[in-house]
Amino acid sequence: MNHKLNKEYSEIAIYEGLLPIKVTPFYKTKIEAESSVLGELGPLWRVAFPSEDRISLRSPNEVEDFVGDRSNTLGQTGTIMKYANRVLFMATSRCFGHCQYCFRTSMLAGSAAAGGSEMETESLNHLLEFLSMPPTRPPSPAAFRRTPYLSPRV
């Protein structure tokens, strides 16, 4: 494993709000087997460990919440609602491993640094109350299109 690159990423992760490197023992054995054949550029390795591009490449139009998860989160419930007829409920902010390509990094990084958290009873009750409302209450999907980076069909 590229310990120098991992150390550099770990330092950057702290101030850029990225998820720390976290790999399960099982997945690590799979990565090691793959790396013996493909080196450190194989797909399993790139999912779990940062590449030089991950650290250095930046786009002038980068948007922190590029998929709109944070702006569509319902309070502190761990619930994302981008569309009137769909709800994504995250019962925990803990992951067994952190993926370099996680699109919920901006939501999970703070809780990962704090060790993650389980949903509190109060938040769960709030979610259940919200879900019991008539389906006509939530806003339409058009209300959530806030950035020009999303296709109108998304």
UniProtKB/TrEMBL annotation:
<keyword id="KW-0479">Metal-binding</keyword>
<dbReference type="InterPro" id="IPR003739">
    <property type="entry name" value="Lys_aminomutase/Glu_NH3_mut"/>
</dbReference>
<keyword id="KW-0004">4Fe-4S</keyword>
<protein>
    <recommendedName>
        <fullName>Lysine 2,3-aminomutase</fullName>
    </recommendedName>
</protein>
<keyword id="KW-0411">Iron-sulfur</keyword>
<dbReference type="InterPro" id="IPR013785">
    <property type="entry name" value="Aldolase_TIM"/>
</dbReference>
<keyword id="KW-0408">Iron</keyword>
<dbReference type="GO" id="GO:0051539">
    <property type="term" value="F:4 iron, 4 sulfur cluster binding"/>
</dbReference>
